[in-house]
């Protein structure tokens, strides 16, 4: 079964199976219990095995299609998707990166059997400071003795295995931690405890707890990679999760938007529907714009794993920083539209409040938005020097970030801890003026649309030029502000690329809508109020109404 057919079958389940109805999902949220019936339906289809590729490395062939699968699994219930597949996917990326052939085969066996794999990095005392983590693996004959605890681990009680980060050297620095792939069945049950479950506001169905080890023996065979290489391997694996997980979350946002549109289309106020209120229409149109920008950046990021893996340290970080942040803003905007209805757990909008509580988990994980900004800051000066240091030749892969051309196989060995100044997405900014001229020459753009788009592209380049004046000290507020502006420019580049690459469909193909997206980005960079053209607003709201009806 292919990823495409699996996605189609899951979508059919979401609409036809009682275990996926709003009532069922809310019942499990109320009781903070696993939706075992839904998991059994997906297990019967072998969904977990889609995390296993056909090649010897065990990596799925298509990262964009894998992102689509994760998005579909999460689409109706983010918490369910996190427990059923996302956590195991996050663990799997570490095995793809650091595991031996034997360890990859063991992972494949667990996934094909529908088992879960947990990932244990977090220690609450150290937050996102992985180098400060203290769980210790002491060398002993034939292996290591584990002592210490890990916190907030999803599925730890029911997982067949776990990827564990442990300190193997008391010295500070990046060479003091190692990664282990541990089969829980092989552990002495007297040497570890599963800690009490953590109560959470969102993703309430997830079984989140901790684990404590006391002189717990693990064999040498469980070590992934070399001793002391755990931090490097983790940062490489994070490039995959940062590149795909924001896109996986967008199904929930699209569903929340559809729910809002359906509700305001039936809510009667002042002799008309709420959908006729100008402020409501403006909020919905801006939500459409933000979701469209997010989709395009996430798609470029997923394709980037194949096309420019050496640049994923920057592209994945941009995606993980700005997409969850902006989607939370979209949810806040939609909550204002729904008013008191947004926190009610009955009626048409019943699931909306659950999405609002669940979605912050997307910003956290093993890389918060803030830590992603911190990963961008040291790379930006070299990116800007390269951008302005000479002629940027258009790579043969530039358009492959955006179009539907066949992708090369994802080569995980090409991931790098730094992009070394290479930024194909930003570099595309130099090529759009010439492509716009070509579109005018081919009659695709009239003079008015051409002039407007060229003006907006020039304004974006001026924004990039302004970044050169920024300070990039890691603890300087100005550096974080520069990453915010840079990330918005990258959203614009991804949107332009998708439009020119022929990926846009429907109303999004219109030049004036493309101009609207760029204008919105520029206002976000400047942090000034955005006023949408009434004719564009009408087109976007009509598109939303059509989408909402189709998904009902």
UniProtKB/TrEMBL annotation:
Cofactor(s), by name: FAD
UniProt cross-references to InterPro entries, sorted A to Z? Acyl-CoA_Oxase/DH_mid-dom_sf (IPR046373), AcylCo_DH-like_C (IPR036250), AcylCo_DH/oxidase_C (IPR009075), AcylCoA_DH/ox_N_sf (IPR037069), AcylCoA_DH/oxidase_NM_dom_sf (IPR009100)
Spell out where the chain crosses the membrane: none
Molecular function as annotated in GO: acyl-CoA dehydrogenase activity; flavin adenine dinucleotide binding
The answer to whether UniProt assigns keyword Protein biosynthesis to this entry is: no
According to the entry, every stretch annotated as the Acyl-CoA dehydrogenase/oxidase C-terminal domain falls at 228-362
User: Out of the domains of life, which is the source?
Assistant: Bacteria
Keywords, ordered alphabetically? FAD, Flavoprotein
**Family note:** Belongs to the acyl-CoA dehydrogenase family.
Listed name of the protein: Acyl-CoA dehydrogenase
Source species: Acidiferrobacter thiooxydans
């Amino acid at each position: 079964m292919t990823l495409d057919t699996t996605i189609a079958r899951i979508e059919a389940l979401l609409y036809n199976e009682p275990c996926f109805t709003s009532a069922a999902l809310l019942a499990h949220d109320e009781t903070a219990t696993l939706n075992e019936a839904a998991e059994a339906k997906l297990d019967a289809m072998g969904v977990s095995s889609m995390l296993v590729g056909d090649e010897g490395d065990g990596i799925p062939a298509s990262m964009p299609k894998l992102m689509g699968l994760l998005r579909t699994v999460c689409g109706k219930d983010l918490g369910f998707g996190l427990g059923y597949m996302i956590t195991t996917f996050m663990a799997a990326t570490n095995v793809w990166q650091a595991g031996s052939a034997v360890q990859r085969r063991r992972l494949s066996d667990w996934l094909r059997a529908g088992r879960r794999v947990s990932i244990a990095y977090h220690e609450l005392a150290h937050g996102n400071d992985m180098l400060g983590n203290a769980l210790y693996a002491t060398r002993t004959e034939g292996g290591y003795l584990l002592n210490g605890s890990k916190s907030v681990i999803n599925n730890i009680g029911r997982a067949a295995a776990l990827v564990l980060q442990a300190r193997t050297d008391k010295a500070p620095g990046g060479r003091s931690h190692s990664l282990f792939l541990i089969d829980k069945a092989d552990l002495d049950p007297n040497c570890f405890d599963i800690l009490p479950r953590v109560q959470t506001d969102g993703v309430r169905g997830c079984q989140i707890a901790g684990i404590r080890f006391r002189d717990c023996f693990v064999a040498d065979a469980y070590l992934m990679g070399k001793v002391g290489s755990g931090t490097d391997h983790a940062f490489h694996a994070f490039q995959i999760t940062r590149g795909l997980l924001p896109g996986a979350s967008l199904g929930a946002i699209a569903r929340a938007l559809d729910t809002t549109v359906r509700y305001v289309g039936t809510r009667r106020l002042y002799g008309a529907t709420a959908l006729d209120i100008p402020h409501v229409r403006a909020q919905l149109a801006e939500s459409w714009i933000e979701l469209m920008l997010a989709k395009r950046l996430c798609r470029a990021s997923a394709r980037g794993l194949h096309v420019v893996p050496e640049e994923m340290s920057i592209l994945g970080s941009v995606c993980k920083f700005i997409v969850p942040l902006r989607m939370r803003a979209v949810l806040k905007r939609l909550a204002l539209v729904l008013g008191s209805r947004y926190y009610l757990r009955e009626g048409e909008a019943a699931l909306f409040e659950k999405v609002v509580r669940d979605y912050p988990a997307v910003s956290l994980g093993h890389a918060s938005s803030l830590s992603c900004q911190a990963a961008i800051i040291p790379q930006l000066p070299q990116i800007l020097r390269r951008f302005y240091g000479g002629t940027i030749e258009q790579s043969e892969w530039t358009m492959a970030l955006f179009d539907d051309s066949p992708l090369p196989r994802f080569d995980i060995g090409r991931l790098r801890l730094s992009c070394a100044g290479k930024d194909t997405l930003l570099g595309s900014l130099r090529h759009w003026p010439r492509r716009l001229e070509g579109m005018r020459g081919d009659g695709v753009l009239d003079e008015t649309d051409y002039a407007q788009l060229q003006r907006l592209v020039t304004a974006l380049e001026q924004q990039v030029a302004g970044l050169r004046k920024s300070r990039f000290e890691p603890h300087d507020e100005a550096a974080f502000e520069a990453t915010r502006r840079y990330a918005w420019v990258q959203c614009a580049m991804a949107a332009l690329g998708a439009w020119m690459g022929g990926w846009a469909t429907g109303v999004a193909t219109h030049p004036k809508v493309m101009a609207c997206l760029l204008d919105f980005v520029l206002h976000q960079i400047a942090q000034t109020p955005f006023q949408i053209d009434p004719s564009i607003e009408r087109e976007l709201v009509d598109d939303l109404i059509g989408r909402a009806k189709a998904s009902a």
